[in-house]
Amino acid sequence: MQKGKINVQTENIFPIIKKFLYSDHDIFLRELVSNAVDATQKLKTLANTGHFKDDLGDLTIHIEVDKKKGTLTVRDRGLGMNAEEVDKYINQIAFSSAEEFVKKFKTKTEAEQNAIIGHFGLGFYSSFMVSDKVDVITKTYKKGGQTKPVKWSCDGSPDYTLEDTVKKDRGTEIILHISKDEKEFLEDYKIRELLKKYCRFLPVPIQFGFKKEQVKVEGEKDKDGNDKYVEVEKPDIINNTTPLWKQKPADLTDEDYKNFYRELYPMNFEEPLFHIHLNVDYPFNLTGILYFPKVKKNLEVQRDKIQLYSNQVFVTDSVEGIVPDFLTLLHGVLDSPDIPLNVSRSYLQSDRRVKQISNHIMKKVADKLEELFKENREEFEKKWDDIKVFIEYGMISEEKFFDRGNKFCLFKNVENKYFTFEEYKDKIKDIQTDKDKKLVYLYTSDKDDQHSYIENARERGYDVLLMDGVLDSHFINSVEPKFENTTFARVDSDTIDKLIKKDDTETPSKLDDKEKDAIKPVFEKSIDKSNFTVIFDNLSESDLPVMITQPEFMRRMKDMSAVGGGGGYMGLGTLPDSYNLVINTNHDLIYKIAKEEDEASREKMARQITDLALLSQNLLKGEDLTKFIKRSVEIL
Ligand code: ADP
Ligand code: MG
């Protein structure tokens, strides 16, 4: 037997591995299984290249728990190691990379530590996070020379033993003697959960125990004449070794993609709208499938659905910082050995390759959307309401995506007709241009609440856009400066003739300045709210006598702060809305009020038409509403 110290010059890293890595000890299993997969894949390569001529046989990797002995075993039939290789790979190389990891780890803050755990492959030595002792029993595939099977043992101190042993089969067996406070890893459910998480798509079959299955007995029926089934035990293979993203798109049907979506998200009952199959070799390696889900109002719950793999080994399902924010709304898998996983997240964000990959994904997403738009506009329009938030989010947050989205992003008007930016501009440019040659995009944020204003605009032949999505107020703010000579105005932000001012000629007023001054306090009294300003306007005779408008600028600032629009607008969310009470000085009723001499009936009339205006904006509530109803009955 050979005894030795792994590396006498360094301090004992084992206590540190145990102590510091405690919070994510789960990853040891991923590391051991992926080592077993590597060893198996290497042997397959040797067989393919003619260096290994024997029968490969069954290559299934076995995971076994022995509760009595307190061990967890990972066993492969890969290439194995001889004594010299154990010394080189386990005692020296693996140890020094574990040591390097611990050194790096110790210099980090706790937050940084959490970020690297699970993203930095600590490798073989991570098994000491959960074990008192680890045995490696291994036999090389090689013939002749030093080929005796060996057993390496280490009890979590730098001392190890290496001795000859008996092992019939080629390959490696890693036996973990699970420590007292890690007993959880001797529970079947826990191991199955971890295997399902990390190993679900590994390329070599992984067996964990057996499962019961009902199998039909051919040619036999039960006493009721139904098919007969018997229960049989079958190896429980944890993983799908040929996940869809590794297959050729040409060989796959739409149904295959949908089935795979169900496999990935068994708890998600909604079907995806469409998918993108990624497959890049150069200048980086990336495969994957991204699905477009229906995007809901609550954006946060939809995030963190993309799973990131490195050569089919699960790495993380939190891809923020790796792909642009808006892409995190997509579902699916990304697999790239080129995303450096052994570094912190802040490093990832500035990594050039990660940027390239990110840009590539963004480009593919834009390509797909453009293709769908071009190939079948009708279908695209049908899906629009479900993908709109996603596209708007991308266009708001990524300049490059804005330039692409320009071509397929749609506006929908209140008649449910869809237009590209270009088409819409053509539609309104001759009608909705004001005297300063500025294009005015009218929009509503609520078809019902702003109904009368929409009607007003439509009576003048204007078109009104429906902008009632969660991101629409943000979206307007971001496209407006990009469109030339354009303003967006909500239909109720001013009287319609002010919103699209065609010329400077004013309709004559039925009231002179003295009369206006006289009735202003009457209306101020009738509205009696500090966030209303009474103003006069010579609207047309057929317009309403009193209207309520909400100035665009103030409202936008409020909207922005409400959806967390940040920056200078912060805090405005608590401001009350500010409104204008617009008195139509060209209306007969207003004229009548001005001429009315009896103070009481003048006030009553003013109050009645003010309340009507409030009612039309859904602003008349409580006691005021009760009073209005009583007064109306009286008047009638
Ligand atoms: P890495 O996998 O990144 O090389 P590890 O610490 O996980 O680092 O493993 C160190 C080395 O030990 C591997 O590179 C490999 O040579 C050897 N090794 C570990 N597990 C096995 C195994 N099951 N079969 C053969 N060799 C193994
Ligand atoms: Mg490894």
Structural features, described:
- The protein folds into 4 domains: 2-208, Histidine kinase-like ATPase, C-terminal domain (Heat Shock Protein 90, 2-Layer Sandwich), CATH 3.30.565; 244-379, Ribosomal Protein S5, domain 2 (2-Layer Sandwich), CATH 3.30.230; 409-497, Rossmann fold (3-Layer(aba) Sandwich), CATH 3.40.50.11260; 506-557 and 573-636, Heat shock protein 90, C-terminal domain (Four Helix Bundle (Hemerythrin (Met), subunit A)), CATH 1.20.120.
- Residues 115-119 and 565-570 have low confidence and may be disordered.
- The chain has 19 helices and 22 strands.
- Helix 15 packs across helix 18 (599-616).
- The strands form 5 sheets. A 9-stranded mixed beta sheet has the order 1-6-5-4-7-3-2-8-9.
- By secondary structure, it is of the alpha+beta class.
- The site of adenosine-5'-diphosphate has 15 residues, from helix 2 and helix 3.
CATH class of the largest domain: Alpha Beta
Give the full name of the CATH homologous superfamily of the largest domain.
Histidine kinase-like ATPase, C-terminal domain
Strand order of the largest sheet: 1-6-5-4-7-3-2-8-9
| Second rung of CATH, namely the architecture of the largest domain | 2-Layer Sandwich
Can you count the beta strands?
Answer: 22
Helix content: 25-40%
Distance between the termini: 110 Å
- CATH fold field value of the largest domain: Heat Shock Protein 90
Apparent shape: elongated
| Average pLDDT metric | 88
